[in-house]
Design brief:
The structure is a homodimer. Chain A is built from twelve helices and 20 strands. Chain A is an alpha+beta fold. Chain A has three domains: about 15-115, Rossmann fold (3-Layer(aba) Sandwich), CATH 3.40.50; about 130-185, Dna Ligase, domain 1, CATH 3.30.1490.20; about 190-390, ATP-grasp fold, B domain (D-amino Acid Aminotransferase, Chain A, domain 1, 2-Layer Sandwich), CATH 3.30.470. In chain A, strand 1, helix 1 (about 25-35) and strand 2 form a beta-alpha-beta unit.
Chain lengths: ~400, ~400
Amino acid sequence: MLPLFAIFTIQRTIMIRLGILGGGQLGRMLLQQAANYPVETWVMENDENCPAASLCDHFVKGDIRDFDAVLAFGQHVESLTIEIENVNLKALEKLEAEGKRIYPNTRALGIIQNKILQKQFYREHEIPTAAFKVLQGKDELMAEGGFLPAVQKLAVGGYDGRGVLMMRTEEDLGKGFDEPSVLEKMIRVHKELAIIVAIGPNREQGLFPPVEMVFDPMLNLLDYQICPANIPEKIMWKAEAISLSVARNLKSPGVFAVELLTDDVGNVYVNETAPRVHNSGHHSIEGNYSSQFDMLLRIILGYPLGNTDNILPSMLLNLIGEHGYEGEPVYEGLEDVLKIENAFVHIYGKRETRPGRKMGHVTVISSDKRDLQHKANKIKHTLKVKGIIKK
Amino acid sequence: MLPLFAIFTIQRTIMIRLGILGGGQLGRMLLQQAANYPVETWVMENDENCPAASLCDHFVKGDIRDFDAVLAFGQHVESLTIEIENVNLKALEKLEAEGKRIYPNTRALGIIQNKILQKQFYREHEIPTAAFKVLQGKDELMAEGGFLPAVQKLAVGGYDGRGVLMMRTEEDLGKGFDEPSVLEKMIRVHKELAIIVAIGPNREQGLFPPVEMVFDPMLNLLDYQICPANIPEKIMWKAEAISLSVARNLKSPGVFAVELLTDDVGNVYVNETAPRVHNSGHHSIEGNYSSQFDMLLRIILGYPLGNTDNILPSMLLNLIGEHGYEGEPVYEGLEDVLKIENAFVHIYGKRETRPGRKMGHVTVISSDKRDLQHKANKIKHTLKVKGIIKK
């Protein structure tokens, strides 16, 4: 039997070649930090104009979901990481067997990639998560009227809101997916939290302070995230214990974003886990001594973990492409936002905007939480990503 | 007459193309920050393996001292900046006349590039600096026995310690340069300070807290720099006033590093000025809310200036190639240094080490200055840049 968790002794005097599967903003921010360390960076992505393409040492155009492409890409490097889960697992398994180091390892990635395996993993390790049923198809779904209200999530292929359906009434069941999926009992959500956990190559662990997602009650859109979360100590302890349990039981080095839900009677549940750097950790670039990107690089390069403490409380807003615009982006109000003390702008360098597309983010840090709120609201109403084509 | 200081109204909705002359570590760190903003980056340097080559959108191999090369490079961009003074001024003057924006402008760069003009500039603006004589050749030098002890500095071509000779006795005069130069009266130096000044496109100004250079009394090598400097308020005020006066009188937008000397009776003198980001400002990446690199980009892109306040006091050590080694670098002790809380490592990605070559730096931040000193000493004795070839 292969050890699930190898003890690594990385030869640190030679330059490690690191491959990143995916060339989006997460890759871009990882590369900005990678330039501080002795590492040779490789990126694979289908689009040579992607945000990460111009910041790596070597760019390879290719499909990260394609077995042959990933396998060939892996030959260039000693270590590989991902910036999106939707990558070819079989190729990574072969590369891992050949001795490449994969962050996260393929066992953890395989669990996360499949929502059925992910939910069973939580249950197996007694990690609190919404009650669920495993469904193979629509017939099984139709029999679950008594389980409503619930959420149906496709086992594979769901991403960023796709592959998820709300099932409130028996009527909704008829519109459900006819594919392997999980049906999760709906939780009366009080708060949405996220905790970034770092697991080092020798099982060292680092927890970033919890983040709270604040939603617009009118539009049901993520408005901004606050760090640290406004939660009682008891909830924080539960959230931290659960997040650590998820990350440790995945038995893989890497950075993990554990998304959590609380209800109004003090329960904390895992919603889902991303085995990688994550939007909920972007504030750590300016808000924490060591960022999530720094942390992932330290893990990959075999260095000690960094300091996860907050420098100051922070708020983060995503910059989303406005509805009604597309084409080359125009960042309206950028100058006014940069007048705000300790507002840090990150534009991802995407060539085209589309309605709802993540085009950048702004982090504000301040010792005063009311000041943060005030500034975040101002930014929200000032900075708009429009496009040169108006529809 | 051309206005010396044009009021810029930059059209901010289009992507600005920025050219950087020089591809060293300053360019590399500028590019790491540039990835946060909507800017297309171009770099020109003779070496395609230079630290900045892999982090820009477009790399052009070429000699930054060559008129034709700089002129051709300038056609790709709207704005240009430098990361080393030793660039072709005539080409930049032509580009400026064609409407390109140059940071610093060519008038300021021309003054700085020539030590005679630089010293005359200080005198003209009543900025305290060591007394000096302008010399056209050796004959004039030989007549200055009464002016010793002094320092002879070549008017042009001196860089990083080259082109500078100590003249302590009449005998030393015979070994002097037979070229246009300045002969500066030696100051009994108590402290060496540096202040980074930002001048915005509409003359807005920002001052970073003063940095103090601490030298090893045995080896006369820069040991580390501390920010803020340990100086009385009165000295700080003088240093700030002088630095501002230098930067404002240069009548150019940009970032300026003003190097200062104090004596033991409370005088403060300008030693020299760099019209660009500078080694003495590297700590600002982690130590200040807005770094010198962020500041330069804000100026070039027409944004408001950032916040120059220190987050925490900092110390910075340069990582210098050890004597006796060359070839591919080996960073001995890197892992131990990364164990130190809030130590931030920057490796510049140079392919080869050489004795005395700047290969990286480490910044430590802490609220406790004794803790800083302790950590800086530990880092100094732990981290060594060796090479795979031992001589």
